[in-house]
Amino acid sequence: MQDLHDTAAARSRIIFTVSIIFLSLPLIIVSLRCFVRFRLIRAFGWDDSIMTIAVVFNSGFAICAIVGSLHGVGRKLEDFTSSEDITKCLLCWWLAQPMYIFSCILMKLSIAISLLRVTIHRWHRVILYLVMATTVVFGVVIWLLMTLQCQPVQEFWLRDGKGSCIPVDPVIVMFYVYGSIGAACDLCLGILPIFLVWKLQMKRLVKIGLCVILSLGGVVCVSSIVRLPFISMYKSNEVLYNSYLFIVLFIIESGVGIIAGSLSTLVPLFHLLRNGATSVSSSRGRKPKSSRVSNLTPSRDSFKLPKGVSLYWKSDTDDIPLVHVAGDSPGRVGDILDSSQEMLNPGVPISHSA
């Protein structure tokens, strides 16, 4: 009995620890993303707004998991000392489900919108729109099912016999359908960037790196696939005990998806830090002209672009997507874009001012 108690306590601690990690990391990454979009490139788009809302839902989901673990999620029913703790665990479970669903929906929408910015071929855009529509439709269906499976809804956590719930078998079937379709959508978001980038005219290593960065959003496919065999645990009478791994995979999927979908937006920050470190290193032994950080950013007046062409990668437009990253010194456009910042649409003419 003591071994079982220790196992249950360990499961609660695992849920608590994983929830803390994937509450903190997505918040940090998305905060950095907002800093880059607002302060560095000054182009805050729809994908950024949607991902920001997604991290709010992810935070609510993680908080529900934390509170649930403190009240006993991960334990067997016989280990609970009061029925009140069971009620609180089931309430946290009920609240966490829509938080998770909307977090994943918004996270995938944000990633798809980001990919639309660099999509040229029509069939690529069609695939992305289908992924977005499928994600929203099936996400809303599973949300309604999970929210309204008991009437009145409080019967889900009170279990006082004053209401009724639908049989668990249809819920499990919908989980399988939702998990399979979600994995397929994640796979599309992971593979499509390879087709978007591979024919662009840039160095092979840069091309591979760009493929990896843009494909990170599809890594949640792994969690979606791994989760499928554990869906049957939802049918168990000891759902709070047996579904702990299910909950952990939910938390990881949502958090990793937000992190992976935001890493590509932090490239300007990485370049700023790299160029700042390089400037500090090269200035040792000689008197620097200025120590101001603003010297790392090229002046807006140092070059001009044709009308309709933007040097910033704006998320909310379908214009020509170019990335502006802080360079070492002002100069021409060709001087600022190094090998890791090549244009995603080669062949676009850019004229320089005299």
TrEMBL record:
Q: What does the UniProt entry say about where the protein is found?
A: Membrane
The Gene Ontology CC terms held by the record are: membrane
Membrane topology summary = Multi-pass membrane protein
Identify the keywords attached in UniProt to this record, alphabetized. Answer: Membrane, Transmembrane, Transmembrane helix
Keyword Transmembrane carried by entry: yes
Q: Where is this region: Disordered?
A: 279-299
> Does Transmembrane count among this protein's keywords?
yes
Segments traversing the membrane: 14-38, 50-73, 93-115, 127-146, 175-198, 205-226, 246-273
- Which parts of the sequence belong to the Rhodopsin domain? 32-271
Q: List the InterPro entries.
A: Rhodopsin_dom_fungi, SAT4-like
What family classification does the UniProt entry report for this protein?
Answer: Belongs to the SAT4 family.
This protein's name: Rhodopsin domain-containing protein
* Organism phylogeny: Eukaryota, Fungi, Dikarya, Ascomycota, Pezizomycotina
